[in-house]
Amino acid sequence: xxxxxxxxxxxxxxxxxxxxxxxxxxxxxxxxxxxxxxxxxxxxxxxxxxxxxxxxxxxxxxxxxxxxxxxxxxxxxxxxxxxxxxxxxxxxxxxxxxxxxxxxxxxxxxxxxxxxxxxxxxxxxxxxxxxxxxxxxxxxxxxxxxxxxxxxxxxxxxxxxxxxxxxxxxxxxxxxxxxxxxxxxxxxxxxxxxxxxxxxxxxxxxxxxxxxxxxxxxxxxxxxxxxxxxxxxxxxxxxxxxxxxxxxxxxxxxxxxxxxxxxxxxxxxxxxxxxxxxxxxxxxxxxxxxxxxxxxxxxxxxxxxxxxxxxxxxxxxxxxxxxxxxxxxxxxxxxxxxxxxxxxxxxxxxxxxxxxxxxxxxxxxxxxxxxxxxxxxxxxxxxxxxxxxxxxxxxxxxxxxxxxxxxxxxxxxxxxxxxxxxxxxxxxxxxxxxxxxxxxxxxxxxxxxxxxxxxxxxxxxxxxxxxxx
Length: 469
Description:
alpha+beta
């Protein structure tokens, strides 16, 4: 067995304990009456409707003219865009075309004190501002709930030079084209401008031919097409590697910014949580007790590998918290629901299983007469593929759940339309937990075991489950 340096155990263990502590409690500073959050912890998690309750609101167009199906779909698209830009993943959206209504259900903000549904829905019902801007300069980049980058807040020339506004857009429609040479099918967005936009766009495309004109909804960039030619008749196409669903979604967002009406809230109410804070505290206590029992079991049965496994499990739990709370700057906060908690619990169970498999293989090799170093190496080798096979199948399931029930619904063609919500939350936390299992339950556990076995006090086979000598 190739030895691992003795300090590695302490370095890895300290890093894991630091991650677990900061991901649980966060790091906050106090400046007078103002509190500053440097690193987010569990207290910064936005809890889902089933845990903390939320708001149900009905939106309708502020007009006496009946809205078309396309206009209602566009309004729904902009509400959905605002949900995802605020990292709200536990939401439900329904359309009622007969009565021109959109019904939305979403959780309270984290740390909500007043629980005023009227103020909670203002950001969703405000008129959307669609702009076409010169260039593609932005201030910040975050990660959306679908894992894709989200570019926010235009700057520089992009902030100052507005080419078109939503009122200049007549319509945007998804279109299918076919290459005359290869016969390949492609999707694009056909754009038609009204009289106010034709002259503006002709001037802009002449000036920016070959350059980017980015499209923004409020302060979120939704597309950044490059000008291919001068457009003088007010008709053009936005091309790219679009799927049918992506082309339809972008067209809906553009139409949403050009709606001839403002959305008004016709009805709103609060949604009571299924659990509430007292039940959440009870779950926390039960979880701590269960983890303590697992620790005792691992220590009693597997001794030193059990101790190492406990440290690895703490790292896995810390990573799960960090991936939900917004701990990492490049990973946005996430709405935690009951199924999301179930995903964490299931992944921890698989983490325990991974450590048990490895420790059991080491124990078997020791009883078969192997040396300590040989047993550790052979136990690691023999257990890896059993752990890999079990975890990779769960990863596939988690990705399918996220693909079908996520905000982008990338598997629309296979499974049809669906809604974001608790199933997506389950898939997300399960996926993060399995990744944590590979990172801590496999990699970190093996590094720490090989490292600590180099100390004289840890050379006894009995500490690893072998015979006492």
